[in-house]
Write a structure and sequence with these properties.
Aminopeptidase, alpha+beta, 164 residues, five-stranded mixed sheet
């Protein structure tokens, strides 16, 4: 079983490729109902910043240019306070490794960051498929009650023209 480890710049290509493979599974959709188009340069920039900045972490499972799963955590602040917390940008397990313990191990990594920093961790599910299964996994892996829900309202097609 490969360990959870911090990503390095050498993981950049494999990370971007892995995020591209699952981008259509995010719960966000354009007004047309279509997935947001994957912007590889933007994803690469995000990965580069997250790997290189002091207040963000990317952990991966996998080696040799093969990413089996990854998580990105960064320090954030609420809009109403200067007090920091840890926020998840993504938790991804590649389809071939779903059903493994990878997601639990990646969440455990994030929880260890929160424990070390003594900061709350905001982590959750924004997905289109298997949402209930993912919620159950997070209920167990995080081990605490959820502190809310996210909802994604999809505007009606043509709403932009009606508003003009």
């Amino acid at each position: 079983m490969p360990p959870v480890r911090l990503a390095t710049p050498e993981d950049e290509d494999a990370l971007v490729e892995s995020l591209a493979r699952v981008a259509d599974q995010w719960g966000l959709r354009q007004g047309s109902g279509m997935s947001y188009p994957f912007n590889a340069p933007k994803a690469r920039e995000t990965v580069q910043k997250a790997i290189r900045q002091d207040q963000s972490w990317v952990a991966v499972i996998g080696d040799g240019g093969r990413i089996e799963g990854s998580i990105c955590i960064f320090v954030a602040e609420p809009f109403f306070s200067d007090a920091p917390y840890l926020a998840e940008l993504w938790t991804v397990v590649m389809p071939d490794y779903r059903g493994s313990d990878h997601a639990k191990r990646l969440v455990a990594f994030a929880k260890s960051l929160a424990d070390t920093a003594e900061l709350p961790l905001v982590i959750g599910v924004v997905a289109r498929d298997r949402v209930e299964a993912k919620r159950r996994l997070f209920d167990v892996a995080v081990g605490q009650y959820p502190s809310g829900n996210f909802y994604c309202y999809q505007p009606k097609s043509g709403a932009r023209e009606m508003a003009a």
